[in-house]
C-alpha cells in the first residue's frame, strides 16, 4: 500500500474514534506506521489536517458524542453481564465495536467509566421525577398511583436479568478511594437536591406535609426504597419485591400526606 493510502486509512480510523481537534501528525504517523514528516508532506499543514478530519466526520455523520454514548451503552451491558470486578475495558471496547484506545480516550479507568455510567443513570432518574410526581398527584387515587410506580420499580429490580442494583452495591462496597467517594457524593447530592425541590413545591401546594424538611424527606424516601432493594438482594425470600409495594406505598403516603 502506498504511503498516501496508508495515511488516509489512518486518518479515517482516527476520525472515527477521536475528535478532529485532538488528532496530531504524530497520531496519524503512528497509526499509518510512517514518519510524521511523511504525513505532513501528503496532508499539508496542521490546519489542512484538521479540515480533512472534520470533513470526514461530517460526511459520515460521526460525532465525538456518539462514540462516548456508544461506550457507555456497551459498558452498561458489559458490567451487567460480568459484574464490576469481572468486566474489563477490553470487553467494553469489543461490545462497542471500538478499540481499547478509543475507550481510554474518553475514560481514564474502569472506575471512571462506571462513575460516569452511574451519574448518567441518576440524571435520567432526576429528569423523570417531575413527571412521576405529577402523575401521582394528578391521579384519582394518589396512593394507588404511588403503589403502581413502586411496583414498576421493584419489578424491574426483581427480574433475574436486571443486576444493576447488585452491580452498584458491588461497586460502592469495595471503593476506598477518596476521589471516588467524592464523585459519588456529588452525584447523589444532585439526586437529593432535585427530589427536594419537587417536594418543596408540593409542600407549598399543601400536597405534602410541611412538618418535615424537604431535603430530609428526600433522603428518607430514597433511603427507604433503595434499602428495600438492597435487603431484597440479601434476603429475597423475606423481602418479596413483587408484592411489597402495597405496604411500602401505604407507609410513604401516610408519612408524607398533610394532616388537613
From TrEMBL:
Gene3D superfamilies recorded: Tetracycline Repressor, domain 2
Domain HTH tetR-type: 65-125
Keywords: DNA-binding
PROSITE patterns in the record: HTH_TETR_1, HTH_TETR_2
Positions of the DNA-binding region: 88-107
GO molecular function: DNA-binding transcription factor activity; transcription cis-regulatory region binding
Origin: domain of life: Bacteria
Name recorded for this polypeptide: TetR family transcriptional regulator
